[in-house]
């Protein structure tokens, strides 16, 4: 998706006269005059990240930072929750104390973060939720890709290309309380339905490479006959590959991941090198979040409730091309 330039309505100067108080009776700030003061003002954005231990989340922050650098009106402050729900709640509360103009959050888990996100939204602060979701609809916009569909595509690819005759596999999920973990699991189950694929074990890898490797090591000891591993992100898939290599199974077992980061240590290069059979590009949404923030705060626009991002299957046949295009 290409960047967009948002027109500034002539009413901006009139709206600016309405003041800067954030309270607006719990309606959020999608149409709030208080949220939009036009291109002549300055805005502080708080970014609450679930953790930066995952390469995907670090890349999300980097994409936000890079995009925001092109908007001189924006100052962006980042907080790392370190996979701790209580810390993330405190991070958001701290941003509210700082009287930020807009909140960008990628929740560690949905339910524990719902109340504080609603608190920000009810104060009239626009809230952009990236990738992982919260419960309910007390936010301005959710930005992400269709995790159920990605999981379904992963299941279909495994059934069609890796184990067309059926077989035994293991599944490594992400963090149990995060919405992508459930959605990618549900979609995958649909993708392999009726195809003779037996998921002999499902474990949680918490989205982390080290945890994925530890879990896979135990899996291969208990089930040395499995033929493939579906990991819900590339770092866990890479961890599983390392465990298989240590067990002498790396030439026998195939590995499937999700994320497809276009960086040297990312999933696209892992596919190109043959460690992973395939991955699916899951955009970070960082650039799109800044676009939406600009449209809300400077353009006085009301964004759609959902901004769905495209995904793409990456195999050895197109990995080099996808990587080059992403970095062009």
Automatic annotation (TrEMBL):
Compartment annotation: Cell envelope
SUPFAM superfamilies: Periplasmic binding protein-like I (SSF53822)
Residue span, Periplasmic binding protein domain: 45-299
A family per Pfam: Peripla_BP_4
UniProt KW keywords: Signal
InterPro entries xref list: Peripla_BP_I (IPR028082), SBP_2_dom (IPR025997)
Tree of life domain: Bacteria
Family to which the UniProt record says this protein belongs: Belongs to the bacterial solute-binding protein 2 family.
UniProt protein name: Substrate-binding domain-containing protein
Organism of origin: Amycolatopsis nalaikhensis
